[in-house]
Design goal:
The chain is of the alpha+beta class. It is built from one helix and three strands; from the N terminus they run ββαβ. Helices cover 27% and strands 38% of the residues. The longest helix has 15 residues.
Length: 55
């Protein structure tokens, strides 16, 4: 029997100017990773950090 996905397992954070500006949580790694590249393309600028963690 499989366990249900934790809807807050994978956390994606965008930080700029020293603080978080956007974040999202997903239960599936594949979904979280699919969000990462568009965030980099849309928001990636010098001084920003975009981090995906498995918690």
């Amino acid at each position: 029997m499989s366990t249900p996905a934790d809807p807050e397992r994978f956390h994606l954070t965008l930080s700029a100017a020293g603080g978080p500006t956007m974040h999202g949580w997903w239960g599936r790694e594949v979904t979280a990773r699919s969000k990462f590249s568009p965030w980099v393309g849309s928001w990636g600028r010098p001084g920003t950090r975009i981090i995906l963690v498995d918690e």
